[in-house]
Design brief:
alpha/beta; Aspartate Aminotransferase, domain 2; 4-stranded antiparallel sheet; 11 strands; globular
Amino acid sequence: MNNETFRKELHRFADWIADYYENVEGYPVKSKVQPGEILSELNKGNCFEHVEMDTLLADFERILLPGITHWQSPNFYAYFPANTSPPSILAEMLTAALAQQCMIWETSPAAAELEEYVMMQLREMIGLPETFTGVIQDSASTATLTALLMARERATGCGINDRGFTGERFRLYCSEEAHSSVEKGVKIAGFGKDNLVKVPVDGNFAMLPDELEIRIHNDMQAGFIPLAVVSAMGTTGSTAFDPIRAIGKVASKYGLFHHVDGAMAGTALILPEMRHLADGVELVDSFVFNPHKWMFTNFDCSAFYVKDPDELIRTFSITPEYLKTKRDEEVNNYRDWGIPLGRRFRALKLWFVIRGYGRDGLQAMIREHLRLAGLFAEQLNSREDFQLLAPVVINTVCFRYVPLNYGGDLNELNARLLERLNSSGKLYLTHTKLRDQYTLRLVVGQTNTAERHLNEAFDFIVQQAEELCGKES
Ligand SMILES: *Cc1c(COP(=O)(O)O)cnc(C)c1O
């Protein structure tokens, strides 16, 4: 493709993207395709034949678009937000164009120094103390694994890096409600998932620090070495908040590495009035949250902060001859701050987002999401036939339908309600189980979700719920 054609295509694709956002509410939020449908369409073509961009774009629309779940629809309330925004998309276009390899300073000085800068600005924005240093990781899962590896190497003076495990019996802790990435990290880091101890939670699904201490104590008696604890700042199920300060006290009493997983909820910390949710965070060793979830920055961009960057670098650094440079002492070579060598230029979109909205703009958008989640919860609360199943602390509403005098199985009823809501294409929610109760979750966090969307969602949920029961009787 010559540059002239490329320029034309860029304009066409820019229009495609703007049109998409204009029409995004018209698509079914959750894709309606069946497993294998996309693949069999793809199989009908000849992949190896050169085609023009017209054909490719047409095939993209015809074959792939039906299989897209529209995370950027304002009616997307499933899982967690993975939102984006115009500044983020524009920056990502530049990132794709420059196609940087940001492994060391020399391979992209601007990327290295922008990452250092923007992580400092973000730290200030979320109110983390200056004792933390940040680095961008691809995901919270990777950041948590990275933290567990740091803990492992701290406990053994980098011994496991050198000689592998030699019979150490470590134990790690998180709550029953912690994200599956903790267990995955424990497996990958070689601890064995049987050594991940799931600590019970209180009525609000937050870890009980006394129960943590009891388990640490028992493990020590049994000859295990308690190594690390992961606190959830916003669990995935109900967005519950573990008491970081109390857990931190236990962690420091027993010398545990303390990592905080704030993957989605961390964004709330840009609001000073929400900082209490991270009370005690100055005590921890590492903290992660994902601007790629709720902070208008498209995937991937995970902000990982550590107290001791030297400890992080000691865990990961490798310097083969071909990667040595004269500047190694003066600069950040981020290849040593995590797992992969090659790294994308992720700082750019974060910089664009922060400056594109300004701190005040970002705060206003997050405040609005909190207000909308509160409003939706109030509306549910005003009805006798809906029940909130967890406190609405920030943007997640956990609820179920409890029709009056219903004799049937509420779990089954709510599963059918969810299926019915999602197959309508009008909105998309997901579920969890809280105390064995099938729970619908509505998470407010898509960039363009506004009050009218939530009002419509509420009316639609009520209508569908009533129809579901009407049909039965
Ligand atoms: C989403 C989520 C994760 C995983 O995030 P990735 O960036 O996809 O790895 C981990 N922990 C919590 C609490 C989450 O909500």
